[in-house]
Fold this sequence. Notes:
By secondary structure, the protein is of the alpha+beta class. The protein contains four helices and 15 strands. The radius of gyration is 18 Å and the shape is globular. Mean pLDDT is 82; it is low at 1-28 and 234-245.
Amino acid sequence: MRVKAALITGLIIAACxxxxxxxxxxxxxxxxxxxxxxxxxxxxxxxxxxxxxVRIAGRDYFLTTAHGMCEGMGGTPQxxxxxxxxxxxxxxxxxDLGTAGRSLLVGSIDGRLDSDVMVFEISYSVRLQxxxxxxxxxxxxxxxxxxxxDGENFSNNSSVDKFAGTVSxxxxxxxxxxxxxxxxxxxxSGSPVVDAxxxxxxxxxxxxxxxxxxxxxxxxxxxxxxxxxxxxQRTRSPSGVQTFR
Length: 245
């Protein structure tokens, strides 16, 4: 009877935690969204690809690409920020997920994969499930998946589509992935690339070879830029390996 009672108690606690998590993220568990740019009056002006949230040392951040922010409006990342403030976030069914917060890191559009990033604060009121960052660069040959949406930005289905591929080049300056088939998710810049543990290894910054390959900003490079900017705290496991949860 004691075992049964303990089991029931455990199930109740798990259910409560699940309800709390759903409430915290408004019932939306998608790890990737569409980025919408609005002017200071709140009027939509452009779409800026995709974006996603990561959790580092107990703090959540929103990541997207610098070139995506600029393509819809022109100018530099900084000038776009001056016009829009923070980007608005939309689900694949056009649901409003909230607005990213203060800009923490402004990347560039100089053509380098490892500098093509924008990072924003994100609050618990934003209904987007944060991912974790893989603690190491993916080895060549690692199987990975681009998380995005087939077709244009929006659909009647809110689920995230996965596009499988294999890491062909991996360094702190850029990760390249050869996909199993064409990436049919359009406007996919800013989509997270995850490994088999569902940990982020990179962010899509461009496609090539008839959309059968993608170039990515390594997640570790983004983390290092955040750390260098003093926007996050580094934690270490007893072995000295960096962890990012």
